[in-house]
Amino acid sequence: MTDIVATEGLTKRYGTRTVVEDLNLRIPEGCVYGFLGPNGSGKSTTMKMLLSLIQPTSGEVQVLGQPMTRGTRRQLLAGIGSLIESPPGYAHLTGSENMRIVQRLLGLNRQQIDFAVATVRMQNQMDKKVREYSLGMKQRLGIAMALARQPQLLILDEPTNGLDPAGIDEIRTLLRRLANDGVTVMVSSHLLGEIDKTANMLGILSQGQMIFQGTREQLMAAPTPEPPSPS
Fold this sequence. Notes:
This protein is α/β, with parallel strands linked by helices. Among the domains are: 1-29 and 40-48 and 55-63, no CATH class; 89-151, no CATH class. It contains 8 helices and 11 strands. Strand 1 and strand 2 (17-23) form a beta hairpin. Helix 4 (110-119) crosses helix 5. The longest helix is centred in the C-terminal third of the chain and has 16 residues, at 165-180. The protein is globular and about 50 Å long.
């Protein structure tokens, strides 16, 4: 199976503080990859390095079969959708108006926008202002924005954070459907229970280091991993 994301020795330091250390990440094509770890473990920093939003201190990132560099960044990002931190969107505009902005910025056609909205099942909510949306609806609009360019890879940072059980179940169902449609999904969470039934593959981060990577079945059979000792 082809790895759609692969890192070698990926490391990020800020001064003397190491946030991510020697990370060898493997995300097979067509899977839902659950990226787990407590808050502050380095998940968001890793995702930002994969998207070239943060430059690594050392190590390499390969995405969609190519190294992520200044020269390839623009081309590679065209095949990646992402939702990092807070859901995007202008609260004073409707969902439709927000999607039209995305359409103009990315040079997309109306069919791509309609497809993204239908994928997250927001067709009946697009005439409402975003300020009137529930948190779950804002998350789904953010995912629609990320899906509009019909990416091969979707990177979602804590998309279930703050959602009630019904909202979490909506996102789970959506991620499974996207994977079935051929989109590779990387989704982070600090709670195993939120994504363990959705993810085909799991990576567990602690203090910036990978302490487990494999299938859910392998995790259940493995001894409890020990967190790395503080540097």
